[in-house]
Write a structure and sequence with these properties.
- The protein is an alpha+beta fold.
- The chain has 2 helices and 11 strands; from the N terminus they run βαβαβββββββββ.
- The protein has helices at 24-33, 59-76, and strands at residues 11-15, 52-54, 80-82, 87-91, 97-100, 114-119, 127-135, 138-147, 151-156, 160-163, 172-181.
- The strands form 2 sheets. Strands 1, 2, 3, 4, 6, 9 and 11 form a 7-stranded antiparallel beta sheet that branches. A 4-stranded antiparallel beta sheet has the order 5-10-7-8, with no helix packed on it.
- The longest helix has 18 residues, at 59-76.
- The radius of gyration is 16 Å and the shape is globular.
Length: 182
Amino acid sequence: MQKNILSEKFIVTGTVSDQSLLNTRQIQNHCLSNFSLETKIKDDQFWHLEDYNTIPYHQHIQWFQDYIRDHYRADYDRTTVPCVGIRSLVQQTGESINYHNHVNPWDLENSPEISCLYCVSETNEPTYVIFKYDDGRNKHRLWKQEIKHNQFILFSSELEHTITENKNSGFLVNLSTHYQLL
């Protein structure tokens, strides 16, 4: 017998090593300094990106993307290539993010295969990403993953996901990066 996997949906979590020069405080400050109406993503097709901000290059973000590339390649023998720009998700107290995914049905070729949320803010109250998925005849399944400081969550870009209400007194800042695979 030979088993062939036809498709795969996944969630991978990890943390950036303390040995890394990556500074989450600098990334958080960079995201917050670019948090404005001008950087909000506007999409004429009403795609669910209204909560995201585009952010420019920053050395520590580059180091994070390098970290993801190197560790993903070492663990899964595939190389991640950044695509569709760098974004941030800044949730103020009481805000949540609605269900959405990162695949643009009008531009599949340029849509990411893997998305990543990287929490750069330190919070006291837990916040979660909830993923919605189907598994064959097991429909409408949910997976709940806590968002923690310095933790990244890599996941299949087609997974519908939401982020629960920020119950902290300060901002919840997540870096959002996206990749295609080689």
